[in-house]
Amino acid sequence: MPRKTVQNAEASDEETIVTFPTEEENEDEAEKLSRMLAAVMEYLTDDDLEEMDIEYLLDSTEGLRSWWDQHRESNKKVIEEEIKKSLGDLSLKDLEKIREQIKEIKE
What is the C-alpha separation between 93 and 77, in angstroms, rounded? Predict the structure, then answer.
């Protein structure tokens, strides 16, 4: 039988408890998403609509802005990984430009 490594022992000391949503919570979430989707579709299919106003849509649909912010935050890690993977393909000049942009943002 393999021995437990130090890393495995440490990981087991810091167990994470994962709770799954109940069926009722899932149904509530599905209802909220369905309501938001319906509001978005009504807005998009409005024949009088000449120009889409995303800010209006986010402000006027209850819960949509919060959901959108959470969705974008959850995608942050995916974006970070995509950027990390592509860095090796960039030229030194491109990397220096990116470094300067990051410095400007931090200032």
Answer: 25
